[in-house]
Amino acid sequence: MPxxxxxxxxxxxxxxISVYVSGRGIVISEPTVVVVERExxxxxxxxGDEARFLYGRSPEKLLTVSPIRGGQVADFDMTQLMLKxxxxxxxxxxxxxxxxxxxxxxxGLDDVNRKALTEAVRIAGAKHxxxxxxxxxxxIGSGLPVYDPVGNMVVDIGAGTTDVAVISLGGLxxxxxxxxxxxxxxxxxxxxxxxxxxxxxxxxxxxxxxxDLATAIPLEEPRSILVRGINQLNTSAGTxxxxxxxxxxxxxxxxxxxxxxxxxxxxxxxxELCADIMxxxxxxxxxxxxxxxxxxxxxxxxxxxxxxxxxxADCCILGIGYLTExxxxxxxxxRRGAEA
Length: 340
Ligand SMILES: Nc1ncnc2c1ncn2[C@@H]1O[C@H](COP(=O)(O)OP(=O)(O)OP(=O)(O)O)[C@@H](O)[C@H]1O
Ligand SMILES: [Mg+2]
Prior knowledge:
340 residues, alpha+beta, Nucleotidyltransferase, domain 5, Actin, Chain A, domain 4, 3 domains, 5-stranded mixed beta sheet, 27% strand, binds adenosine-5'-triphosphate, binds magnesium ion
């Protein structure tokens, strides 16, 4: 039996969890969902992909839980059960020693939540736990020179949070995390459809409308799609034509909230680093940054170049993976959870 387990990296997102094993690469990428029995909540029926399949199809005695909300542990027991499942799936159980685990967190996570997450990962099977802010991991994943004395700005737009950070010399100089992301965009579309079109749609429909039609700036040639839902007035099934201009109106508020957070960080960034950012641009990572023309919207409003990463949704786990392979780069501050 091998003595030491390989180091493991986990991007613990609100909607997706990815696991990286040193020497092997990304081995898991699944939804952050658990299905348990309603009566005894410790009886897990499905996790990840299988749980997503059961969503909306499960009988009444089963309960679907999203244990991470807004990037934080919302359900401690479920988080720990889910992490245990994924750790076992990633590296098996044939090691005498337990792995060191690097986990992503939103910027500015307070000590109580750091402790809760560290504890959950430790109970799930880790020996030491290191916590890394998402935009720092995203910056490494998109190939930015985070250890050089230059300013790099990363905006990680996930499902639950947007994390904005200016990074230089291997650390965060200014950062902010706001509870705005893909899920807020879905909710904004659901609310708009209900308010303006009298049609009630579920989360999945809203997410599909966002991916297929929504835009952060008005299109020169508007497009439209059919949206199916329940007519609010007579509670019968209904279908409407929904166009990109309406989707743009619906998403104005979350887009403005993201812009406001970027401005807040820029205003507090030292001038020297600001000058670097003006030159090299703002880098977008996270699945939410794939909203159509969001890069153009931010660039036009701030008059700074904005670059969308090549695989936005994978930047964070790729960065964590790099740190997993080079664990000596993990700083004493990230080790705050390790001895807790
Ligand atoms: N083409 C697209 N257009 C707009 N949004 C998209 C697109 N593709 C994916 N998304 C959104 O990206 C989000 C998922 O991104 P990601 O996996 O980075 O989030 P996460 O890491 O789980 O969340 P967080 O980091 O906030 O905890 C979802 O809300 C999804 O709807
Ligand atoms: Mg994320």
